[in-house]
């Protein structure tokens, strides 16, 4: 009686079947992990929004972006001082003064942009359309997610660069770095995967009014 083993063809077929089964299991797992990370980003964006509003109530302004990425630098995680230097056109979230996480779940720094009208004592009578922060947010179909009216435009925009870890959501218009659009909403495969949130002047005004710390500059 002779013993017969598997032929090379049979082994190849077995390995192919195992590979297909593993691939079928790993793909949904990867999708689940990305969905989990996106949910986590959504929660962290809400934390950032609350922290920015809290900062505004305490200080009467929003911080400038941070521009330092060296953890050994004393200014790491801190905003640029507007009395010493201009705010960066598009920088990093100053996470230390806000008390939030420095990076998103994919290991990228949170990006942050602020209308420079709102980094000193708030002048709520000044609207974003004065040329110092004409921001708008659009979706993958170029449809506006924010109002076109200057008075209701975002004054602060913050976002995660997404799984690809690139700021593919930011575009500037012409030579003016203060006229910028940001992509938000549902990600579009091959186009952008940034996760974006923002604060508008009406939201800021409502929080300041409810906190009874409205600045003397008026509305």
From TrEMBL:
Keywords: Membrane, Transmembrane, Transmembrane helix. This is Prepilin-type N-terminal cleavage/methylation domain-containing protein. The keyword Transmembrane helix applies. It comes from the Bacteria. The keyword Glycosyltransferase does not apply. InterPro entries: N_methyl_site (IPR012902), Pilin-like (IPR045584). Pfam families: N_methyl. NCBIfam families: IV_pilin_GFxxxE. The chain crosses the membrane at residues 6-30.
């Amino acid at each position: 009686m002779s013993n017969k083993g598997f032929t090379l063809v049979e082994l190849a077929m077995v390995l192919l079947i195992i590979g297909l089964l593993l691939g079928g299991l790993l793909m949904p797992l990867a999708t689940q992990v990305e969905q989990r990370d996106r949910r986590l980003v959504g929660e962290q964006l809400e934390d950032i929004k609350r922290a920015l509003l809290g900062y505004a109530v305490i200080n009467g302004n929003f911080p400038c972006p941070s521009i330092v990425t060296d953890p050994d630098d004393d200014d790491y995680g801190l905003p640029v001082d507007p009395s010493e230097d201009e705010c960066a056109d598009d920088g990093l979230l100053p996470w230390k003064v806000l008390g939030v996480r420095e990076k998103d779940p994919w290991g990228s720094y949170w990006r942050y942009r602020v209308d420079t009208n709102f980094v000193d004592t708030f002048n709520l009578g000044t609207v974003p359309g004065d040329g110092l922060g004409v921001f708008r947010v659009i979706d993958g179909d170029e449809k506006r997610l924010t109002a076109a009216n200057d008075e209701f435009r975002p004054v602060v925009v913050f976002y995660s660069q997404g799984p690809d870890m690139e700021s593919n959501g930011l575009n500037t218009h012409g030579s003016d770095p203060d006229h910028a659009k940001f992509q938000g909403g549902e990600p579009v495969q091959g186009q952008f995967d940034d996760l974006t949130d923002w604060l508008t002047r009406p939201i800021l005004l409502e929080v300041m009014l409810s906190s009874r710390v409205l600045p003397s500059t008026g509305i």
